[in-house]
Amino acid sequence: MLSIPPNVNEHSSDAIQNALSRSYHAQSSRHGGAMDSDLFSQFMRRSIKWVILATVIGLAMAWYVATHFAKDTYYFTGQLRLEPSSVGFPFLVAPSTVDYTRYVDSPQTIRTLHKEFDIQGDESATADSITVEAYQGSSDMMIEMQGESPEKVKAILNELLVLVSEQSREIRDVAIEKHLAQFKLRTDALEDQEKEAEQKYDALCKKYNTHDLEAQFKANENDRAATNGLVAHRTIVCNLLRETIDDIKQTIVEARGGNIPRDEQDLLDEEVKQSIDTSRHAILQDKLVDHRQREAARVKLSAKQSELQRLKTLLARDLVTQAEVQEVESQVELLTLESNGDETINRLEGSISKIRDKMDSNDYLASSARAKYLARLADKLENKQQALAIAENELRDFSAHLKYMEAEYERLVDVTPKIRDFKDEMDGFNQQRQILRQETDAIKQLLATDGHTLTVNSEAYPSMHSVKNNQKKMLVAGFGAGSLLLLIPGFLIELFRITPSKYERLASKHGLPIIGRIDRKSASRFTGGTTSRVLASRIQRLNLPVGSSIALVSTGRQPCPTGMLYGAASQLAEEGSRVLIVETIGKTGLVPLPGEHTTEQVQEQTLEHGTTGPVDRLIINDPSLLCNAMSNQVWDELSASIRAYRYVLIGGVSSQDPSVASLVSAGADAVVVVSLERDAASLESTNLINDLIDFDARFLGAVIST
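Structure (tokenized):
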């Protein structure tokens, strides 16, 4: 900067670097906001003529196509219905109406229609004229067909409905036959597996010497359970019998010592008394019987004696024989003996007397009762001992049998998993066989019905919009074809014109944001065009202090155009402030500024004051003086004048003198790289930018040539 104190210079440098760091990632070298806006505006301006011309040609093409190719199209609709059926469900998953749609316009169906109706043309066109509408879960299928002849379209559509219906039945029948064949294969495989399982089980039965391992295992379990019950019962019986025998023995010892329970004693006394009464009653009964016999014998004896007297009288008269008399005499003797029963009576009386004597004795009842009690205990003890012996024998037998059954159970336990596996496998075979039988029966029943097939529900009838004219479509197609025929090449030409050039690649190589593009026409205008406005806006966003300098360095042989400098300076001047342009006199001379101005000499340099505008220009005769002014505090009068300007735009430096350009850029607050000529991407241009980087130039961006 020209004679600006160091602290101000540092402040402006920090401001530039912060602003650049914030905007660097927001705008790339080829796609920055300003660059894209400039590219788009140029592209649109150049493309307007192509758009107008393409519109005219498109309208002409649309009129021609609509008048020569428009025609009427007739639409007919037919309806098919998928017959529902619960037969075969859920063993057969039948296709839905959506599944059948692919057979409507299949190549085989279209080929059949072409052959039957002798349709001329491509089969794909016929397929495109068919529209199928079906929804998941719906049993209706709508088929619409279009064509130029209504009679022919209706006939073809009716035939198409029949063909699709027949195809659906064939598809269903083929699917059922495949299912039945699969069922047959599965049934045969299941039978083979069952035979193999039975052979394994027979081998296992043969190994364990039985024909039914499962039945034997169950019988063993039942036998062991019953034997366990019997062993437990006999053990309890034996324990009870032993306790009973011990109690009886203890009771016998106590009874022999005269210790008989009182209630037992009373019962025994009563029994003894009843026994005595019974004996006496028997004796008395015998005595009564004997008395009755004796009385009867006496009666008979009296009769026989009378008969004997009568026979003896008759014997004396020889009317009877001696034998008859002797027989009667023997009977009389016998009856005489029977009637004389005194000895028996005496004996019975003696027995009764003895009984009475015993009853009168004091210890008869006690001794009889004790003897009777002991005899009863002895009988009971003998019975219990016999029962104990029997129970112990049975317990030994049952225990031995239980051990045998447990050993047999252990032997069968080893084969239990195999038995269970065999049973599960056989149950699985039976279940699968039952399922296969149900599936086979259900699917066979389906063959005899119309279930899951498409039937013609409605023959072809005119659609809601039965006739349509394609004139509008032809207009749109003609306009589109005609306009695009010219518009696409025009856009490609204009796009090629604004494609990134070598200048963009140079800026991208060094990471410089592209401020804008400029051509030679806009460079010659003092308005500077869009590039000048974008450049001024970019400088203003930096908020540089008063008197800040911006160097515009050209990478070509020619310096930055005066028009762009003047345009940017005009945009930067605001609210009465002025902007100074600093230029050197080159080989081509200087371009005069527009408007009126006055001239004065400041330290042998020319300063032009604009009287009609806010822009002044300082003309330096020798570029080396500009370098000295940027690096040393000289020309006090010039520095004082420059310090009053809002901005100082420095031009006139290029790659023609790289040392001056580098020193000027190093002393400026911001640097803008300008590429205008063909050799802007040459080695000299690259070296110049590298020198600027080495001198820590504060780059603001680049202006590239289009």
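The first strand starts at residue 72 and ends at 82. Residues 242-391 form one domain.
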